[in-house]
Specification:
This protein is an all-beta fold. It has strands spanning 8-10, 15-21, 29-33, 39-44, 50-56, 69-71.
Length: 72
Amino acid sequence: MTVSGGQGALTGGQANWNYNLGAQASSAVLTVTNASGQTVYTGQGSTNQGANSFSWNGQDNNGNQLPDAPTH
């Protein structure tokens, strides 16, 4: 499954998204990009069938806290 265009905003160091899987998945890779299209975070998501949520703490893959901004 690929979801694109799921825009959000990093506000107060937190961003949240919801996604739905039609069936149990073997893996779910979640990627957050900044407004310039650069990947700032990649991690594993829930693989459960149905509604799932992802809360991101605003840290990049190196553990650096990113400033509040629109994300995708």
